[in-house]
Design goal:
- The chain has helices spanning 2-10, 26-35, 45-51, 57-67, 74-91, 102-106, 112-130, 146-156, 181-189, 204-212, 229-237, 246-251, 263-269, 280-283, 287-298, 302-315, 320-340, and strands at residues 13-19, 93-100, 133-141, 165-169, 193-198, 218-221, 241-244, 272-275.
- With 341 residues, it is α/β, with parallel strands linked by helices.
- It has one domain (2-340): Alpha-Beta Barrel (TIM Barrel).
- Helix 8 (146-156) links the parallel strand 3 (133-141) and strand 4.
- The longest helix is centred in the last third of the chain and has 21 residues, at 320-340.
- It binds adenine and zinc ion.
- The site of adenine has 11 residues, from helix 4.
Amino acid sequence: METLRKLVEQLPKAELHIHIEGSLEPAMMLELATRNAVELPYADVDEIRKAYNFNCLQDFLDIYYSGMSVLQTKQDFHDLTWAYLQRCQQQNVVHCEIFFDPQGHTERGIGFATFMAGFKSALDQAESELGISSKLIMCFLRHLDEQSAFDTLEAALPFLDQITAVGLDSSEMGHPPCRFENVFRRAAELGLKRVAHAGEEGPPEYVYEALNCLFVDRIDHGNRALEDPALVKRLVDEDIPLTVCPQSNLRLAVIGAMAEHPIREMLALGLRAGINSDDPAYFGGYMNENFFALIDAVGLTRDEIFLLVANSFKSSFLAPHEKQAHLDRITAMQAQQEGSA
Ligand code: ADE
Ligand code: ZN
């Protein structure tokens, strides 16, 4: 097990499902609250952690949106993003595709110019100083209506050169993907890629809708697709990636115990799954901790680790030659391991 942990640490990895607002660690939340004179209902880090006892997605989202209130200035968004990128460096995550929730900020009177400038300075710094590449994915909050998503897309127009894709997140139940068909079509016309959270709490039908109405390039989570063999076949046949988030699944009760996590079944079925942290500050770990949890609980094998890591690069929005360079490194590491085994 120790050697598998080492392998995870040594492998260069890509993260494709990380909400930057979900990387807001309790210590930074307190620091920014003080900096911006925002009143929080918590006195210290322990109280914040105690509040993180969610039983479902909605419980988590209530706390997640209230935590965001401390993010106010360009510097705050820079500091948040830079802290995540430093974690990436420590964990050998060399490429990341980061979600952000503009409506969580514009609703509070914080405009695109503020948060996009903070993201940009941190991401540029990571590219030049840490060698970490990145893309930004702008998510629409599905508990709000499609008009609000259209307004958000309109406000994003001056920043489109910084945005690679649109996504769909927030409360899944009762908010099916098809409601966002028109705004996703507009995003596609603007040259943006598309992803959507589906099949996290919602039924397999929501995964079908993400494919049929939103024409997504990837499904975020997708766990419940396993309930429908025809859907699994379609995801395999069309090579649709799933961005899977084990610790999130456990904390939000998508699974009852880590030992029940279906990641090995997903791979055995031929699904193109990869590992991600989702909201690491809230769910107890970043990329490597998610791998470690699976190694311990479901007995992830060496070959499965290589496959999961390769899948994420393949599923990324990097250019083909960039993907290939990462995949070649992974193949070389695998051959070297096999040679010395
Ligand atoms: N926003 C942040 N994390 C999320 C998740 N796991 N599902 C839906 N929306 C989210
Ligand atoms: Zn997510």
